[in-house]
What does this fold into?
Amino acid sequence: MGLFGRRPSSIPYDMFSLARSADEAKRYVKCERIYHKGQELAWDGKEILPMLLAKHGGIRIPADQREPLKRLFAIILWGELAAWKISAQLADRLVPIEAKMAATSQAFDEARHFYTMYDYLQELGYLPERLDRAPEALLDHVLGTDDVAAKLLGMQLMIETIALAVFQEVREKRLEPVLADLMAYYERDEARHVGLGMQYMPALMKGMSPFELTRLFLFQAKLIGYALWENKVLESDFKKLGIDPRGIIERTRAKQALAMRAAIGALGVDVDNERNPIFQAIAGLVEVVFPTDETRGRPLAQARAAIEAFQKVFIPPDDALSVHAQHSIKTARGKVVGSENFDA
Ligand SMILES: [Fe+2]
Ligand SMILES: [Fe+2]
It folds into this structure.
């Protein structure tokens, strides 16, 4: 810098002059739409939770399910805080204005998810405490990485889809009526957040070297390991709640497969979703970590089931993600909004 020169600036003045292909331009329009939809569909947790508590006459849950539900949703509570922090990190780090807008609106949503879940858990008698090692490691892994692509993959495509699988299960099983109704509100928002990952991931992966791509997929594999460990830790709580941990994994896998297909397919890579080695390996591992009643305690039968699962063709249901955009919710503008197309 010369004597009268200017210091380098943190303001990205070139943000409007980034070259874009037609496909990228379309994706950026969708990112921008995520921000505007977020504003239009924003709901008020201070209105909705009391409304649902009044509708159902307070929280109603069998005594033996109260503690397991608290433990499961304590992970969701701190997960919402992590999502809030991660989306704020992304809002700062992402350069294209539309992606920045989408991440900013996500931070706004996650703040609402966090305080509403805290209010709900207080009704349940929850006192904040440190999480188990597995969920903490999963969240810290994504919070701590400096790599924007790994952060986006970890948050928007992996953690969000795990949360969506749990929310869907809790809503469909109607474990607790207030929470079941509340899940519809969360699902609508989280589905938009997965949309940001699907739309913006290709731009981040485009210029990556094979080494960088390998590093990214190793990061993903580590996350999957933490997620399976978390599921194992929660296994007895899931059972007490009548939730099959394998069902959660299957649902998560379907959502992740659709999201990854959208993200990686955009790079021109022919994605054979039915033969994805990462998802095949998970399917095999699940047979060992979460044996069925038939294979439990029988190592040979487990090994056979693992090989079969590894070889099996996996076709995720088409509506695995769009289902979350179908719920009617009451927005802060006082409107009841019904289903929408999931094209975020
Ligand atoms: Fe959230
Ligand atoms: Fe989210």
